[in-house]
Amino acid sequence: MSRAKKIRKKPKTVFFVGSGPGDPELITVKGKGLLENADVIVYAGSLVKEKVLQYARHNAKIFNSASMTLNEIMRVVVNAAKAGKKVVRLHTGDPTLYSALREQADVLEKRGIPYEVIPGVSSAFASAASLKKELTMPEITQTVIFTRLEGNTAVPEKERLSELAKHQATICIFLSVGMIDKVVEELKQGYADDTPAAVVYRATWEDEKIVKGTLKNIAQKIKKAKIKKHAMIIFGETIGEGQKAEGKRSKLYDKDFEHGYRKKRG
Ligand code: SAH
Fold it and tell me: Which among 91, 123, 147, 205 is the best mutation to test ligand 1's pocket, defined by most ligand atoms within 8 Å of the CB?
């Protein structure tokens, strides 16, 4: 018998891909290319719009992770990668926000399986785009906070909404529309009652819904619209209806301001 060593296949790189907020055209070109070539796709079915799967090969093996545990997901991913298959783990929005990316990556690192992370358009940005608002504006705020209320996952005490509210920055709140009363109650510790508020339900989906109001009335409007999940909550002066840039323009396109790419035109 030959003494040749058994040749082991080198595991293929696993790709964590951000699918974007829903509209299949909002996945990156790179993400789409990876989906088109994938042998195995595990997608976060509770949120990833299935239309994005139109890019998959007809014979790709597709798993919906909504009903799977971490162990089950990683078993599929690890076994496929080890068998030399091209694997895409498809997340909603951007995979670096509220996606349990770290715990999955840990498993791959432990097993010596290489991986890459391909960014996606977060629902926070898709929602801002649907609202046609700029989240940062000169003299109003230069800061955006991404956060959530405590649910099954705890939130550190120093990041309570009531604490974050003190900055009066633009704030994008994930995973919390079902607890809108609590959101409002905590934000009142820092924002004025008339602070502009918007909730975008399923940004970029065919049934997208936008509800606008203020800190004072948004909870009531959300309940009336029966929005209980899958929505982005944004508060802050930057998203106000009457908000105009006049008098508070940035220096970026100012004719009296000079930078590396443009001379002053006084
Ligand atoms: N990684 C994702 C967030 C996953 S957490 C991202 O970057 O968007 C899931 C939460 O994201 C939902 O509870 C909701 O608050 C928000 N979300 C995801 N898709 C959305 C969409 N199309 N419209 C509005 N909110 C969305």
Answer: 123
Q: What single-letter amino acid sits at 137?
A: M
Question: Nearest C-alpha to atom 2 of ligand 1 is from which residue?
Answer: 93
Interval between CA 145 and ligand 1 midpoint (Å): 15
Edge to edge, the sheet with strand 209-214 lists: 144-148, 170-174, 231-235, 196-201, 209-214
Q: What is the pLDDT of residues 127-178, one digit of tens each?
A: 999 999 999 999 999 999 999 999 888 999 999 999 999 999 999 999 999 9
| Strands in the chain per DSSP E | 14-18, 40-43, 61-64, 87-91, 115-118, 144-148, 170-174, 196-201, 209-214, 231-235
Q: Is 94 in the pocket of ligand 1 (CB under 6 A)?
A: yes
* pLDDT (tens digit per residue) in 236-250: 999 998 777 666 667
- pTM of this prediction? 0.91
- Predicted confidence (pLDDT) per residue in 71-121, tens digit: 999 999 999 999 999 999 999 999 999 999 999 999 999 999 999 999 999
Rounded Cα gap, residues 167 and 191, in angstroms: 9
Where in the chain is CATH 3.40.1010.10? 11-118
Report, in this order, helix, strand and coil percent for the chain, each rounded to 5: 30, 20, 50
Measured in Å, residue 69 CA sits from the centre of ligand 1 at 20
Q: Name the CATH superfamily for 11-118.
A: Tetrapyrrole methylase, N-terminal domain (3.40.1010.10)
| 123-244 carries CATH number 3.30.950.10 | yes
Q: Is the CB of 149 within 6 Å of ligand 1?
A: no
